[in-house]
Fold each of these.
Amino acid sequence: MGCSSCSSGKDGQPKGCKNNGTCGTDGCNKLTVFDWLSNMSLPSGATPFSCVEIRFKNGRKNFFKNTENLSLSIGDVVATEASPGHDVGIISLTGELVRIQMKKKKAEIDSEETKKVYRKATQKDIDIWQKSRDKEETMKVRAREIAIRLELQMKISDIEFQGDGSKATFYYTAEERVDFRQLIKEFAHEFSTRIEMRQVGFRQEAARLGGIGSCGRELCCSTWLTDFRSVNTSAARYQQLSLNPQKLAGQCGKLKCCLNYELDAYIDALQSFPKTETKLYTEKGVAVCQKTDIFKGFLWYAYEGEWMNWHKISSEHANEIIEANKNNEKVASLEEFASELVEDTKTDFENVVGQDSLTRFDQPKHSKRRRKNRNKKNNANTNKGGAQKQKGPSNKPKPGKPVKKTAPSNKSKGENSENKNASKSNKQRNKKNRSRNRNNDKA
């Protein structure tokens, strides 16, 4: 909701037009209409449309006649006719688009409600308008205090001064009729101005004040929505939403207007679904609908007495069973239809990254420097060993001389076995001598 010339500064105020969001292109205001005919010139001999659209505080707009044939453009501050006195507003739309907007809102040029544009506002008119606008916030606080003191069941939501400062309009909301005759007397005595009380609905109040919805965006009623259609709880039932008033209510305390946006699509999709009240009669028992999935076209049924076991079937199969029941025929069971929609949710686990190891983070991390030092030491040791082998005598045969192969002798094998047997016998003898010496010492 902002234009290129109204980028916000450090303190949140727009830097381009420096008029708190009222820019020349009218791109950062509520309920704006893009003038796509602004760059096109009228054909020769055609006269521009005599009416203009003027915006006042909080998105309030009216159509006015340009009887003086003033050269007006979007963003001009003008003085308009009011009762009594005059009002000050900003032009939000000109040209042929005003004719389309008047036709859309059923406003006629020759009606008494379509008033005149007096002139372009002078500096004196703008100063008086700004001074009266500065009083509105303090007056609203004081007006609420007076209403609470008089114990009136009403809420004063906004105050709007007329451009010349001669009249103040108090917007309030109330659930019942309020007798505010005493309130007007105290307001006139307190503020010394002409007082007008105007009751608005809760949705109109939210549209005037604005705010942020649960979706994170600005309220639709304060940005682009102009007509308020009635919203019923049946819209939430068609969309299978939980009937929780805290979730379904908007900033105004009423049901959200966005519940009607997709209602037609849901109603068209539900035409192919059977009614949830109809029961399916099978040989196994009577099945009752528990849940529906509009987007995928599935329904879940449960047998009476077995409410924990749900059977998933498609809407086509449900219609087939209902037609069979009309002909006094029963299906064997719902499991026959549900078996076709069973999905294999089991997947084989594949350890690709090694995430199943609990000690994967316990392994010490070796740095690249240590690896480089180890590689250098290993290379140095291999070089030293190779040099020593080259220095020692080599058993390799010399070229040109044949090598004689000698077979192992049997004598050497026999001598080794005899020496082993002799050593064993000597050990046994030494053990016997030691045991004899011990016995003699004891005696």
Note: The chain is about 35% helix and 15% strand.
Amino acid sequence: MWEYAPAPESRDIANLKPNYRMFIDGQFVEGAGEPLKTVNPGTEEVLAEVSTAAPADVDKAVKAARRAYDRVWGKMPGSERAKYIFRIARLIQERSRELAVLESLDNGKPIKESRDVDVPTAAAHFFYHAGWADKLAYAGHGPDPRPLGVAGQVIPWNFPLMMAAWKIAPALATGNTVVIKPAETTPLSALVLAEIIQQADLPPGVVNILAGAGDVGAAVVSHPDVDKVAFTGSTEVGKIIQRQLAGTGRRLSLELGGKAANIVFDDAPLDQAVEGIVNGIFFNQGHVCCAGSRLLVQESVADELLEKLRVRVSTLRVGDPLDKNTDVGAINSREQLTKIQQLVETGDAEGAQRWTSACPLPDKGFYFAPTVFSNVSQAMRIAREEIFGPVLSVLTFRTPDEAVAKANNTPYGLSAGIWTEKGSRILWAAQKMRAGVVWANTFNRFDPTAPFGGYQESGFGREGGRTGLEAYLDV
């Protein structure tokens, strides 16, 4: 059996610096908080020291954003705002290789995903929203939609650059200014995005980027001069934020956890479905809110599909995120790896049948082999709780109605997948699914022109598309 020769990308391309500072009012500044060290999850080495914010720094950032909104950005014609946003998009493209390597070092995801998905999608969001900046009156949100003011945004560690683009681009296009906090384990690409924003000559204070842990995010969210809060992260934190803002009159959008169902009917093209299943759960190590972590297979094809799936998963290469051959990279942190291990042990204890790929794992770093559980019941924790790792739970069904009932038997509702050759069945099932996004004969396809968001404990509000603009407008 032949082996892939190593094909590592050079880490020098990331232009790593020993220290990174926060970005407030157009300048990089030292924060008054305790500095944090960001770690490469693939090797457990410290990458850099990052300056973090204290409450006084949050206040400075919000005041800078308010000044920029009142004096410059809120008054600027949309056609002028668009020029800045287009410039940011082009600079992301120009520095795409640097950003991709940096993202893989800081996050642990394979370089081919950072290179082919994260960075191009981030640039695409800025390009798309730049196009809307002078057309807001024609977006269907009333004749004179106006910006809200200062947007406080908190983003997670699974797609650091892409989530920053999802949040910042629509806020800028609609005339708002931004204070954004990236996750404490993955701050680097957001701080390099700050360099790009400075390079694009965006007026000072329009975008402010603060590093730090959850207390910094809480300070941004609770600041009385923030008009709009956008949060992507866990359902538990989302509930805290919702309680905090209840009755304040401030706008809120939440994109939270998920436990998506990926339904395979007996007439589905099984080889194609296997590729979609693998992409749905093992993309980005399963660190995806909309991951297809529950596979529902019609009984008559379950054995055949599972055999094909195990063969395909056995070919996935787990290892160095900077190697272009790697399919599954490193788990983002030791804390997340421990959580995955605990939930997998729960699956064993509750009687599910576990199959784990025999792929070799590196000696150093936070790695977990792709795992598939069969004989799973709906009552098991692995079928109910978000594992947020490369772990798939397989359930079976007999009728289409049973498939939909099982798919909807969850407090979440972010995404779903349907695999069948019948167009009528796709439309029927999609209408029945309580999920914000339903993919048909594919999975994990994202486009800035399409709205994305959830129902129930997966949050509310939409990001992307014409619909996503409304979250940042007074309509």
Note: The mean pLDDT is 97.
Amino acid sequence: MSKQPQKDRALATLLSSVLADDNGSITPPIVQSSLFAFQDYQAFEDRMAGRSDQPIYTRVQNPTVAAFETIMASAENGAAAIGFASGIAAISSTLLAFLQPGDRVACVEHVYPDTYRFMERMLRPFGVQVSYHSVSQFETDPELLCDVKVAYLESPNSVMFQPMNLMQVSEHARKHGVVTMIDNSWASPVFQTPIDLGIDIVLHSASKYISGHSDTVAGVVISSQDHISRIRDLTLPLLGAKLAPFEAFLLTRGLRTLSARMKQHQATANLFVDRLASLPEVRKINSPGANDVPGLRGRAGLMSLEFDDSVDIPKFSDALQHFRLGVSWGGFESLILPARVGLAQAGEKNSMQHFGVPPNLVRLNLGLEDAEDLWADFTNALRTSVA
């Protein structure tokens, strides 16, 4: 159904690769079937005995999903990939495939909120030890990962967007035999390929930049064949968080424009970073760019700002015309998420509360609207909100 992408192609060319069937379709057909039949007894037995890889049941294997997985594996320079029904399904299924009671996870601070919730509400009660560490601790302390089973990373991390020297951290991990996992949703394979920097397993909330259209919830994991086989044989079939064929079709569509979209996100982010530096109301800009750490090739459109006390953040938020109030990011639309909303969340302590996010912080997702229109909207709202 699909041709194996060539690793020597430029990424933009690889991502736009034609995935054709025998009828000449230039988009991967949606194979909307729950099961697959066999021509004869021997073919059925060969599949059950592991002598063939013919699809058998969509919960674990589907041609449309496989087409998406093939491109993602090549894009991240991994050997294989697995698609999941959501980003947190990819994260939880991967962690559970490598952890047992008594194991220890070392996690970066300011981790994605639902990853934090999973570690606190699921891993700890099942006897897994979890510790949180700053980016600088991971980079500078070679003994931090002693007696650790899994190092869970984000670069940059969520909300504060602190980048990490992944080459340095992977060296520390290899010294202690630690499995390294990273959420690469922010950078995408356009701006960072962690496997090339020594990281073992790469994860994405594919709902974000991979999809790019705010119409898909999905996740994907990329790694070596051995690591992917472990997940595919254990947590994928037994937890059942499979990626559906239609979502895989939408993700493949999104991948074809990923490089172009990331360049536009970067251009708008660069414009904002350059101009924000001159605004007295902005105390700090959290937006790493190309070469801030080894292996980081660009600046994504997701950043955060810390305002001074003169800015009325609710008033600023309500005055915006082109930025919508909402969670998630990575689509064509621009979004704003004030930290005060997260800090006010009811229930058990969340990651913003745990790690101490400044209340005057605002996260911006810069979408694909005209950059000058976005800047005019931002500055107009800021003027109306300053006391």
Note: The chain has a mean pLDDT of 94.
